[in-house]
Design goal:
Blueprint: H1 6-12, H2 29-37, H3 43-52, H4 57-68, H5 72-89
Helix pairs in contact: 4-5
Length: 90
């Protein structure tokens, strides 16, 4: 099993609730600002986008990169984070 980053472990330790989007593993400060300006200010809203894409990591990553200015690494880490959260809580 892969090692989890402390940030990913913290995110997966409890339900999303009202956490800001910056709590999602892989979301940098700059990307968080971009997401907030597009209306994705809460982690649950970003999770909703992931679910609308049928938990398709490749599609979600492409959307993050193209529409929100994420790097490839940020897109991969954040999609992994949301996928893992879904596995734990859905």
């Amino acid at each position: 099993m892969e090692q989890m980053s402390p940030r990913l472990r913290a995110f997966l330790s409890e339900p999303i609730g009202e956490k800001d989007v910056a709590w999602v593993d892989g979301i940098s400060r700059e990307l968080a600002i971009n997401l907030v300006t597009k209306g994705f200010n809460k982690a649950y809203i970003l999770l909703g986008q992931f679910l609308l894409m049928h938990k398709n990591e490749a599609e979600f990553q492409k959307w993050l990169i193209c529409c929100c200015g994420a790097t490839e690494c940020e897109a991969q880490e954040s999609s992994k984070c949301l996928k893992e959260w879904c596995t734990c809580f859905l």
